[in-house]
Amino acid sequence: MSNHQLTVSDLTVAYNRVPALHHLSFQARCGQCVALLGPNGAGKSTLIKALCGLVPRETGAISFHGHAVNGPNREFAYLPQREQIDWDFPATVRGLVEMGRYQRAGWWRWFSKEDEKAVAEAIHLMQLEDLVDRQISALSGGQQQRAFLARALAQQAHVFLLDEPFTGLDKPNQDNLKQLLRTLRDQGKLLLVSHHDLGSVREIFDSVLLLNGELIASGPVEETFTEENTQKTYGMKVFSGPGAGHHHHHHHDHAHS
Amino acid sequence: MNWLLEPFTHDFMQRALVGGALIGFVNGFLGGFVVLRRLALMADSLSHSMLPGLALGVMVAGGLSLTALFFGGLAAALFVALGSLLVARSSRLKEDTALAILYTMAVSLGLVLLSMVKVRVSLNHYLFGNILGLSNSDLWLAYGVTLITVPLLAALQRPYLLLLFEPAVARSQGVRVGWLNLLLIVLLVITMVSSVQAVGVILMLGLLIAPAATVYLLADSFPAMLWGGGFIGAIGSVAGLFLSYYIPNLPSGAAIVLSLGAIFMASWIFSPRYGVLRHLLHPRHFHDESLARWPGDEKDRPA
Fold first, then answer.
1. Inside any domain, residue B295
2. pLDDT value of position A149
3. Average pLDDT of B273-291?
4. Distance from B156 to chain A by nearest Cα, in Å?
5. Which residue of A has its CA nearest to B218?
6. From CA B183, how far away is CA A56, in angstroms rounded?
7. Mean predicted confidence (pLDDT) in B251-275
8. Optimal mutation site among A108, A145, A170, interface B, most CBs of chain B within 10 A
9. CB–CB of B173 and A103 under 8 A?
10. In Å, how far are A20, A230, A254 from A241, measured between CA atoms?
11. Residue B38's domain spans which residues?
12. From residue B252, how far is each of B66, B127, B199, B235 by CA, in Å?
C-alpha cells in the first residue's frame, strides 16, 4: 500500500530556530497534481525545500515508496522560482536537460545509450526539438518552463516540486503549462506546486494542501477546496508561535526573539 | 619567419614562453569558474592577501622564496577567504564588507612584517611580476599547478556546472557544495602563487578574468568556456611576450594583460551573438517577442 505514496508526518521546519512550518502531516500519491496554497509566509516554499532536503527538519519524517527520505534524493526534482536563475548562464536547452542526467551518469562517465535516450525523450515530450541549441535566455517564458521540466523528466524523478511556476507567464503560456502538468500527471508523476491564484485551482489541480504555518486542510479539490477552508487559510494571521490564539502542542523548544 | 623564431634562441625567452603559456592556460581555465561564480572581487582580495607570505619569505630566506610565498600566501589567502565567510555568516555584515576588512588586515600585516626585517625589499616584482626572470623552480611550480588544477577541475566539471548554475538545485542533487567551493578557493590560491613571479599581484586578475570574459561573450557552453579560456590565456600570454620582445622597454606583464584586454575588446565588439555591434545593427525585433507568446508559431520564428 505504501507504494507510489509520499508520506509526510509531523514535519516541523525552522529557520534560525524560528519555526516556519509546524507539525505538518499529509499524504500524496503518484499521479496527483497537488496545489500548495496559503498566504505569503505560510511555508509553501519551505515545504518544497524541506522535501528536497535543502532545509533541515526539526521534527518529523518523510517517506516515499516506503523508504525514508533523508537529504538529497534523485526521486525528487526541484524547480526553483524564475528569479533565482541566472538566465545568462552559458547553457543551451540541450545542456540544461543533460544536467538532469549527471547524477545517474556519475560525475565523469560518458553518457550511456540510456542517458541519451532519456534526454531525447524529455526534449520530445516537452516539445523542445526545434530549440535544443538555443541559449536559455533566448526562449520565451513558457519555453523556459518546459526546458526546466524536461530536465526533471530526464532525471527520471517521480516527485516534481515546482515553486510558483505560473508566476510571470501570460495566458497562452499558462494554458500550455497546465497541459504539460496534466501530461506529467498522466505519466504517473506526483506534482507538488506552490500556487497563489485561487481562481485557477479547480482547472489545474486535483488536490490541494492548504497551509498557514501549519496544515489547515488537505484532500481532493471538490471536498477540501471550500470557501470555509480558504477563509481559514487566508483569513487568519500567519501562525507565529504559541500565543497566536489557538491550542497547540509543542514537543520542541522555540527560540523567542 | 626568422623574426618569429629568434626569441626562442634565448634561454630566458624559452622559459618565459613556456611559463607564460602554462600560467596563461591555467588562469584562463580557472577564470571560467571565477566569472560564473562572481568571485572576481574575492580573487582580487586574495591576490593582495599574499603579502604576509612574501614578508615571511624575506624573513626566512632573505629574498623572494617560492616555498615561503607558497605556504605563507596559501595560509593568508585561506585566512582571508574563510575568515570573511565566518564574519559574514555570524553577523549582519555582508561578505564583501568582511572581505575588505580582512584582506587589508592581511596586507597591513605583511607591511608590518616587512618593516621588521633589516633587508630593504623592492615590492616592484611582487606587484608587477618579472616573467623574463622565471627560474627553473618557478617553471616546475607552474607545471605542477597546471597538472593539479586543470585535470581536477575538468574531472569535476559536472558537479561544478550544477553548483555554478543553481547552488540550491545542486545541493538537492547531492553535490557537496561546501567542499567544492573550498576546493575552488584552494586551487585559485595555488594558481595565484604560481602567477606572482610572471605578472605580479596587480595584473594577475586580468590574466584570470579577461580570457573567461572573452569566451563568455562567444560561447554558450560551459566546457567551451573553460578550455576556450585556457586557450585564449595561453595565446594572449605568448603574444604579449612577443610584443615585449620586439618593442623596447615594454614591460612584459603589462604587454600580456594588454594583449588579453585587446582580445576581450574584440569579442565585446564583434561577437556574432553577444557583441555590441550585433546589438546596434540588429536590435531585437518587437515581432520576435510577440511571436514567442504563441507556442504554435515557433517554427516560423527566425532563429
1. no
2. 92
3. 73
4. 7
5. A90
6. 24
7. 93
8. A108
9. yes
10. 9, 21, 8
11. 2-277
12. 21, 13, 8, 14
Q: Which residue has the cell 527560540?
A: A255
Please, which pLDDT band fits residue A248 given cuts at 50, 70 and 90?
Answer: very low
Contacts of A84 in chain B (CB under 8 A): 166, 168
DSSP H or E run through A134: none
Chain-chain contact of B171 with A90 (C-beta, under 8 angstroms)? no
Which of B36, B91, B157, B158 is most worth mutating to test chain A (most A CB atoms within 10 A of its CB)? B158
What pTM, to 2 d.p., does this model score? 0.85
Subunit contact B171:A54, Cβ cutoff 8 A: yes
Q: Which residues of A touch B158 (CB under 8 A)?
A: 99, 102, 105, 107-108
CA separation for the pair A99, B162 (Å, rounded): 7
pLDDT of residue B77: 80
CB B189 within 8 A of CB B74: yes
- Chain B contacts of A170, Cβ < 8 Å? 293
Q: Please tell me which of the candidates B162, B219, B221 has its beta carbon nearest to residue A99.
A: B162
Q: Look at residue B156 in the predicted model and tell me its pLDDT.
A: 94
Q: Do A172 and B293 touch (CB under 8 A)?
A: yes
Nearest one of B36, B77, B44 to B229, comparing CA atoms = B36
| Per-chain mean pLDDT for chain B | 86
Distance from CA of B158 to the nearest CA of A (A): 6
Cα-Cα-Cα-Cα dihedral sign, residues A98, A103, A108, A113: negative
Closest Cα in chain A, distance from residue B207 (Å): 21
Please state, in angstroms and rounded to a whole number, the distance separating the CA atoms of residues B277 and B284.
Answer: 13
DSSP, collapsed to helix, strand or coil, labels residue A34 as strand
Structure confidence at residue A168 (pLDDT):
81
Whether the pLDDT of residue B201 is over 50: the answer is yes
Q: What is the pLDDT of residue B21?
A: 95
Give B197's pLDDT tier (boundaries 50, 70, 90). confident
Q: Each residue of B152-175: pLDDT tens digit?
A: 999 999 999 999 999 888 988 889
CA atoms of A159 and A173, how far apart (whole Å): 23
List the one residue out of A1, A91, A13 whose CA is nearest residue A49.
A13
Q: What is the DSSP letter of A254?
A: P
State pLDDT tens for residues B27-52: 999 999 999 998 888 899 988 888 88
Average the pLDDT over A197-225 and give the result: 90
Report how many domains make up chain B.
Answer: 1
DSSP H helices, B91-135, are 95-116, 124-128
In a domain, B241, yes or no: yes
Q: What is the pLDDT of residue B130?
A: 85
Q: Is residue B99 part of a domain?
A: yes
- To the nearest 10 degrees (0 to 180), the angle between helices B222-246 and B177-216 is 60
State whether B299 and A130 contact (CB < 8 Å).
yes
pLDDT of residue B291: 56
> For A80-120, how does the pLDDT look when each residue is reduced to its tens digit (9 = 90+)?
888 889 999 999 999 999 999 998 888 878 899 999 999 99
Is B290 part of any domain?
Answer: no
Q: How far is CA B82 from the centre of its chain?
A: 19
What are the cell numbers at A115? Answer: 542517458
CATH code assigned at B139: 1.10.3470.10
Would you call B168 and A135 a contact, using CB atoms and an 8 Å cutoff? Answer: no
